[in-house]
Structure formats: C-alpha cells, structure tokens
C-alpha cells in the first residue's frame, strides 16, 4: 500500500450519508480515479456504509473506509484510514479514539490494510472542524505539523483538509517541502479541472468530494486534469 500511495494521484470521496444514483456512482467508479474513500462527519451508520460499499464493490476500483465512527467499522474494504486530528483541542481526536479502536478491534485488524493519517483541518466553517473542536493553525503551525507527521510520528499520510473551501496553493507548496516520506493529500473545494491541476502541482494526491454532488461533469474532469 505504501508503494500505491506513491503512485496514486486522484481519489474521489463519497459520503455514505448523501444520496448518489447508480448511474452517477458508475461514472465515478469507472472514471479512472485511483481509489474511492468512503467517509464523512454526520449521520455515518453501519447501514449506510454497508450499502455504499456493496454498490462500489460492483467495480474494480480500490475502496477505502475513512473511520469517523467506530460503530460503522466493517470488513470488506481494501484499506482503512484512521485520522489523527493534529489541530484538535481535544486529545481524544489525536490519540484516545484510536487507542480505543485498537483495544476493541485489534484481533480482527490486518495492519497491512490500516493507515493512520495526520489530519489538519483548515476550514473554520467545516463540520469536521467544529465536530473535532479544532483551532485554526497559522502557517508556521501547519508546517510544524507536517514536520511532525513526517519525522516524529512517521505517519504515511499528511492530509490538508479544507472541507468545502478551496485552500491556499502557496501553503500546500510549503508543506510539501517538509515531507520526505509522508504522502501529501489535499482535499477541499476542488470544483474544476483547473483547480485540481493547480493543487496537483504541490500535493501528491488530490481528493475530490463535494463537487460529486453539485456538478458531476466538472468532478469527473478533475481525474484527467491531474493525470495528463
């Protein structure tokens, strides 16, 4: 999987709490994207995760569960991403929930399939920002978090999450200079091919989510934009 991370360029993120037609799901799964993440903040249940998983499994695209609720953990995904929210004011989002998950599920965990993400949420208006009781880090904070992920915690992923807001390409570029080993994921506000192409100059992997539900045509165009 670490090798795959270095090869991937584009991921679509689907929210199990949102509706998507079979026709649109087929377009997403057959788009040429490198993988699909299933994850969200609100109303994530085992039932809606299983429903979306079963529909994605009709296709060959790799499927990842990004764990935001332990109640929705289920076998059947190719990989599992576990966020560690670096800029949360509460230790539980950085360590305690992950600790509890390992206590509860260690006997059924295959660690070759599990990857911890150093998560930095950078949009004050995002649900995830409020839900995790995060603070808005300044540029020096973000760069320091990237350094910690790469050289202190040795996590495989540093995720810059703007969640619905288009971020600062200059900051993404500066963060990239701190990462020698971790893969840089960027997610948030990518609605057009031009935005995807701009962020891909600096981030290793572009994650596209909200635009799937607002403008499918433009969302699909982001795949070729980062792979050409």
From TrEMBL:
Q: What InterPro entries does the annotation carry?
A: GGGP/HepGP_synthase_I, GGGP/HepGP_synthase_sf, GGGP_HepGP_synthase
Q: Which SUPFAM superfamilies match?
A: FMN-linked oxidoreductases
Record-linked Pfam families: PcrB (PF01884)
Q: What are the alphabetically sorted keywords of the record?
A: Lipid biosynthesis, Lipid metabolism, Magnesium, Metal-binding, Phospholipid biosynthesis, Phospholipid metabolism, Transferase
Can you name one GO molecular function term for this protein? magnesium ion binding
List of residues binding Mg(2+): 15, 41
- Catalysis performed (reactions): sn-glycerol 1-phosphate + all-trans-heptaprenyl diphosphate = 3-heptaprenyl-sn-glycero-1-phosphate + diphosphate
Cofactor (UniProt): Mg(2+)
Quaternary organization? Homodimer.
Family, according to the entry, reads as follows:
Belongs to the GGGP/HepGP synthase family. Group I subfamily.
Tell me what this protein is called. Answer: Heptaprenylglyceryl phosphate synthase
Species this chain originates from: Virgibacillus chiguensis
């Amino acid at each position: 999987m670490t090798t795959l991370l270095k090869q991937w360029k584009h991921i679509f993120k689907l929210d199990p709490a949102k509706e998507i037609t079979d026709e649109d799901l087929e377009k997403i799964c057959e788009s040429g994207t490198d993988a699909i993440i299933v994850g969200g903040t609100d109303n994530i249940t085992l039932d809606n995760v299983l429903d979306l998983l079963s529909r994605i499994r009709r296709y060959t695209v790799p499927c990842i569960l990004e764990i935001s609720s332990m109640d929705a953990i289920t076998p059947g995904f190719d990989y599992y991403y576990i966020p560690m929210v670096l800029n949360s004011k509460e230790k539980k989002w950085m360590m305690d929930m992950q600790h509890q998950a390992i206590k509860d599920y260690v006997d059924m965990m295959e660690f070759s399939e599990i990857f911890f993400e150093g998560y930095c949420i950078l949009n004050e208006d995002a649900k995830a920002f409020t839900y995790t009781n995060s603070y808005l880090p300044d540029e020096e904070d973000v760069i320091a978090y990237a350094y910690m992920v790469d050289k202190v915690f040795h996590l495989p992923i540093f995720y810059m999450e703007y969640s619905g807001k288009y971020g600062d390409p200059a900051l993404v570029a500066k963060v990239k200079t701190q990462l020698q080993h971790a893969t840089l994921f960027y997610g948030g506000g990518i609605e057009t091919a031009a935005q995807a192409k701009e962020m891909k100059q600096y981030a290793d992997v572009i994650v596209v989510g909200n635009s799937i539900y607002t403008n499918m045509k433009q969302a699909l165009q982001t795949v070729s934009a980062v792979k050409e």
